[in-house]
């Protein structure tokens, strides 16, 4: 049994205030790529002592398999919330295809995928609302990764409004191979009270979405570019491509996304980046619509 832990793409991210609990008040339009990590349950009754997480894939060497890993953290949280719902010795495998600390929600998607798998094999019926509450306790982005649909996120991330008529998008994701600390980026913001998202239509075309994105922002952009100048260079390279409709940093970086009209154009755009920076991680992919 396995699931894809899809990359979460923040098409925009507005920081509109700071909460009494110390977290920032956010508004963001989020969607998900078809591509991501893979999480599997290998064995529900393996003979080892306790749960086991094996990690392979392109970025496996950068990730620990102890309690600092959100997969293990989510499994522990699920067991505490629903004792005896799972067998004692689960063997899991995480194939890490997404860059670490890259602004596309890899760890949160891993945690959400664990909750999905645990719910499926649970001996107890798991209430979806209670599972969402548990997800929010694990991390700010875990609830929307559990939903895994285009949505507007607000608050700390717990206020989620799914979008019903969101178009499928063709994209290229690029990461320069530099990890970024989300906490550090937020700590270096010049301003924490900015304007809200523009009003968004219930139904819109690709062209209307791109026009809307031009009126939105990523308020983490400048702080991230100061730390990782490569972000600005990648965006500029995409903007010089006449086939690119829009390019921006996702989340706190350093991954950049670029949108195209067709998958063929996205693949051609990816090839241009690959030739210029062969050491970068480059992935043409589809960003899923609401259908």
Describe this entry's structure for a reader.
The strands form 2 sheets. Strands 1, 2, 3, 4, 5 and 6 form a 6-stranded mixed sheet that branches. Strands 8-9-7-10 form a 4-stranded antiparallel sheet, with helices on both faces. The chain contains 9 helices and 10 strands. It is α+β, with helices and mostly antiparallel strands and 291 residues long. It folds into 2 domains: 154 residues, Ribosomal Protein S5, domain 2 (2-Layer Sandwich), CATH 3.30.230; 125 residues, GHMP kinase, C-terminal domain (Alpha-Beta Plaits). GO terms for molecular function: 4-(cytidine 5'-diphospho)-2-C-methyl-D-erythritol kinase activity; ATP binding. Pfam families: GHMP_kinases_C (PF08544), GHMP_kinases_N (PF00288). Its EC number is 2.7.1.148. This is 4-(cytidine 5'-diphospho)-2-C-methyl-D-erythritol kinase.
What key attributes describe this structure?
single chain, 291 residues, alpha+beta, Ribosomal Protein S5, domain 2, Alpha-Beta Plaits, 2 domains, six-stranded mixed β-sheet, four-stranded antiparallel β-sheet, 9 helices, EC 2.7.1.148, ATP-binding, Ribsml_uS5_D2-typ_fold_subgr, nucleotide-binding, kinase
């Amino acid at each position: 049994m396995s699931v894809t832990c899809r990359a979460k793409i923040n098409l925009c991210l507005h920081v509109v205030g700071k909460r009494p609990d110390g977290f920032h008040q956010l508004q963001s339009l989020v969607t998900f790529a078809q591509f991501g990590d893979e999480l599997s349950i290998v064995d529900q009754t393996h003979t080892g002592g306790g749960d086991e997480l094996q990690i392979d894939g392109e970025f496996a060497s950068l990730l620990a398999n102890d309690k600092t890993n959100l997969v293990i953290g989510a499994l522990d949280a699920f067991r505490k919330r629903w004792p005896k719902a799972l067998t004692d010795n689960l063997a899991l495998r995480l194939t890490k295809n997404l860059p670490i600390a890259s602004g596309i929600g890899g760890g949160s998607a891993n945690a959400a995928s664990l909750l999905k798998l645990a719910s499926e094999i649970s001996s107890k019926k798991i209430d979806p609302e209670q599972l969402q509450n548990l997800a929010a306790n694990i991390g700010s982005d875990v609830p929307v990764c559990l939903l895994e649909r285009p949505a507007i996120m607000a608050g700390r991330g717990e206020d989620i409004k799914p979008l019903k008529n969101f178009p499928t998008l063709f994209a290229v994701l690029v990461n320069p191979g530099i990890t970024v600390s989300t906490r550090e980026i937020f700590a270096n913001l010049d301003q924490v009270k900015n304007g809200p998202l523009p009003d968004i239509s219930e139904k819109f075309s690709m062209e209307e979405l791109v026009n809307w994105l031009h009126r939105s922002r990523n308020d983490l952009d400048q702080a991230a570019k100061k730390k990782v100048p490569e972000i600005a260079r990648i965006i500029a390279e995409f903007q010089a491509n006449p086939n690119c409709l829009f390019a921006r940093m996702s989340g706190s970086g350093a991954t950049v996304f670029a949108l195209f009209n067709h998958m063929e154009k996205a693949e051609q755009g990816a090839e241009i980046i690959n030739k210029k920076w062969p050491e970068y991680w480059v992935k043409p992919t589809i960003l899923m619509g609401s259908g």
